Amino acid sequence: MDPLVTNLVEPQDDSSQAPSKPAGDVKPEDDLLVLKPAPERTQYDVSENLGSALTEEAIPAASVRSLGSSIEEDSSEHDTTTPSSSAPPSESGNLDCATHHFASSTAIADLVPELFTENIMAKVLRTAQAALPFLPTAFPEIVPQQDNHDGSYSLREADFWTCGFFPGTMYNMLERLIKYPQRMHLSSSVDLKHLRNQLTVLCRTWVEPVRGMDERTDTHDIGFIVMPALRADWELFGNQQSLDSIVKAAHSLATRYVPTAGAIRSWDLLKKKNIEIIDQDQNMIVIIDSMCNLDLLYYAAHHAQDSKLAEIATTHAATLLHSHLRPEFMLSASKDAYRGQWYSTCHVANIDPRTGELKQRMTAQGYEHDSTWSRGQAWGILGYAETYMWTRDSRFLEAACGLAEYFVYRLETSPVCVSCARYVPLWDFDAPIENENEPLRDSSAGTIAANGMLLLSQALAGIGQTQLSLRFRNTALRIVQDTLSFALAPEKARLVSGSYHQIRAEEMSPERRYDGMLKFGTANNNANARNRYANHGLVYGDYYLVEFGNRKTGEECEYESKRIKPGLKSGAIDNLHRRIDELEQRFNAQESRFEQYKHSSPHETGHIRQSSSKSAACSILALLAKELPKLTDGLSNGGVATPATNEESNKRRRLADKDNIILHTLDSDEVPPLPQAEMLEAIVAAYFSRVHPWIPMIHQARFLQRFSIEQQRRKLSVVIQAMILAASKFVSGSQGGHVEQARRWVVCTAMETLSLESLQALTILAFDDIGNGQASKAWAIIGSMTRTVEYMGLAQEQEDSELHPFCQAYACLENTDDWTEEEERRRVFWNVFLLDRFCSVTMGWSTSLTSDDVFRRLPCDGHLWRKQNAVLTPYFGIWDKSKGRIGNPIGFISQPTSLIDESSATETAAHGQMRGTPSIDMGQNGAADMSTVGAFAYNIEATESMSRVVSYFLQQKVSIRNQGEISSWLTRFKELDLRLVHWKMLLPQKWKANPNLTRQVPLMDPNLTTAHVTHNTSMILLHQLIAYPPPQWSFRNRLPSTCSAEACYTAGTEIATITEKYLTKSSPTSPVGCQYAFCLFVAARVLLAHWRYAREKILAAEFWSILHSLEEMSRRWIAFSGRLHCEENLFSQYHRRLRRLHERCAEDENFRLNIMDYTKDMDDCRGSEPSQSFRTWPNVGVTLPLDDLGLSLLSPEFNTDPMLDQDFIDMDRVIAFEDGSMFTSSFDLGANGW
């Protein structure tokens, strides 16, 4: 987004403008002086007289052939020593661009009306909706023009430099809807309010993963990534998180600054077919594109008042004047052309980082090293124009003018074959034209250059250079006009209103689709490039096209001689009186109610008046809490909530948010008040980006449809309140008091009805309670939900069957033909199922939802659900608990019981067995079609695997005196171990791609990562009793303890490694699920046990890595809730308990953990002694010798059918990080990042 003077805003009270800077010489060290406290939409200060800055005194001798000297030939047109006489001076003697009238958008809208058509909006909306399921792993990048392509955007990994442009385009369209909707040429059937609300929610969804990239120090393109969307989010809505991310991103970029070279390192290395530069000690690669990332540094310096950031940006820009700019001859005969030094620019410069000397110039995307790559020239124009607007340094204005004039010259002198749309630049001005009928262009270079020239025009207009300003303005418009006539995609789209006021986009011609706005973009046509991309739609070409429409032209700024007096605007007092009248009417209404009961009996009167008085007080207090912030807002300049860039505005916003505080008199049957609409939308967006990935059960698009309708929102009230409780901690400024009352209301309301919304609300509540370290509150809710899902029929598929009971159960939910709704019900059940299994494993309790209850398909892949593509998934086999006692083989336990006749159709199901889509059983899923399931389903599998280890192995009662029981118990051990190994071996190939991590993985799927961590935890729980057996087992020395100990240790270290990588690659503001925390606790505990049992001198470093990870998870869970010094959350509880266990182990070398006592250790929140741990090996009691039992462990006679014992010993049981299998899935996630 460009400097804010270029945006179309309502006139603001000029008292909010920054004071003008005194006239005088502008020196580099004074750069930050113009970074004054900003008005509500920060504006470039073009109001000052920069004549002295353009004199020879302020220009280095080597640069005297520039704007100042060249203009002397025609001082009447380009006088640089005094302001233009046509612009009256301000009170300080300088020019003030004080007001920017809304009507100023007329020029661009009328000259290039195609920028404001419904087609543009429809394409943005369609791509935002279609690509949403792939967040946060991928973002739109290109649209190939080939006939064999479907016309949709091809996506690129999230860490690519282009990921910020499409979110920025969305915010540009939203800015139009908010600020000048009458310029949007939309059909009458489209409701602007609903479109604006829908796009707002989408923007906040798309901006979340961008905000999570602010700590990246591996790229200089962080400005391209964060500024387009985050700057708009801050300036339109005052979102403090976005401004904080901008400042953080600027500091991340500053880490790449090399003081000895005076520049920011662009690339760490350069590898092409003809060149390779990899030594960073002797080489520093800087590209011209980096000029457009300096806006990030200046913007952050302004808001954070950090002069260092501005100094880095200015020094970098000055360095590139010499390293990249190449002087060119002035060849134009046009009398209005810029008469100073012209420049072309190289693409890449290699600088010696030790001395700052230029080593070589080259290109990576242009034709040749000394050719003029058109997009590189465009980056230079825009970058130096932006830098001048921040610094007022004449060197940068001269550079921008010289680059722009040379660009215009090359356009005007293009070969004859470019006569059609001459102002659409060739991809490289010096490259040979291979096909004169279709010369290769780059439409993106044109839109970027047009933005730069328009900004340059504004800068020149601000200092009175009217004629030169007009030249660059007209050229910018000509470029855009030619680009639209030549490159605008003929495949058009339109907006269509659907159900629930949901607006979608569709093709005007069904057989022709093209999601890009422009065609004929050339990303890279260098002959030595690894991949050449030409004739594509480019996301940054579209972004700068839309951005151009949101800019103001230089001639449209109105300069006023006097500032508008501060004070209340007209109508403010009337508005104040009107609100006071409303309050008086409320008081009068309450008095009338009292009069109705004045003749009642004393007892009745007292009771009624007490109740009425209480109600009246509550009503008035609530009204005051709601209205007072609005009265305060009535005193503001603009009276709109759009800008929030000054401190007072932000404070008022926070006061307004206080109306979501629940009054002390809130009763259990009184609905807690909702936050203001803007805050509520932010909380809902935070829910889908932060909470939903761990409990994916609400279809986001369907929910938002209902959420946007008032009547439907009432039905969702219990879900919305639960979302507020769980997600408000992730939204800055949203925390209110009386959370416990709101929680009580959710529980009471949800328990009163059997509805899907009630179950969803309780699931959210239980998840939040456990994470908050209040698991005891959640167990009763989980126990209730396990029965409720049965009552509501959610544990069974609704498919028809020929077998029916004579007594039909009451149907709480009607059957539905809507596959998306049925999948949502299915996911609600599986989330309750996971909570039940988590409760069972962590607390050692018996499971509910057994094979008698459950007859369910697995959930489908998340992106298929979000796209509402109906698919069929396999059933998940639940073991028969009644057959699970020791002695029964697992095959007998897992054998399904048929519920349907053999003649049933292929789409009907048997209990655990289905024609066409058979039931799957973990570790034996080779026969089932798993192509339609995703990460969530594998997490269910892994969790049930862990539950089976506990239920069918650890919780079984076995007498160590009984030869048969021990033999059967060890057989069960081997069978379960085999199934865990098979689960890994039988993962579909798509989950096993990239085994050696040969490519960088930007983000890791939370559900799939949890599945792998859970799998390794299952290995620990299964093997730890064999690895570290109780001392009273006389036969412990005959157990395969060494093999099992190795499996436990390896699994623990792998969990630590996976977690470290996950936290590194995930957003620093995204929380982690509760089950993940339990897995870390088990892993760290087994590493402690291994340290003490193996008597090793040094504790594994992975133990401390896990503690660090738990600390980070605790920080992420706390977020903005302010619970730093309050009660502990789950992660901090685990962290503290592990530290205490370590202290005990370190203090007493004879101290030994009771490896199976983890349920008491994890539940010990009061810091008591570790329960039932062995200080020393106790005397072994009277037990039967192993030989007397007739056992010969690990002998050839002790085998299970599937595998020999030697195979058992050599098996690879652990899911290692190197497998890479958690990185290749499409995320089973929701919005904004997931």
TrEMBL record:
A molecular-function term among this protein's GO annotations: DNA binding
Domain Xylanolytic transcriptional activator regulatory, residue spans: 778-865
Gene3D superfamilies reported in the protein's UniProt record: 1.50.10.10
Entry-linked CDD domains: fungal_TF_MHR
Residue ranges of coiled coil: 573-600
InterPro entries according to UniProt: 6-hairpin_glycosidase_sf, 6hp_glycosidase-like_sf, UG_Glycosaminoglycan_Hydrolase, XnlR_reg_dom
Region Disordered, annotated ranges: 1-96
PANTHER family, alphabetized: HYDROLASE, PUTATIVE (AFU_ORTHOLOGUE AFUA_7G05090)-RELATED (PTHR36845)
Record-given protein name: Xylanolytic transcriptional activator regulatory domain-containing protein
UniProt source species: Alternaria burnsii
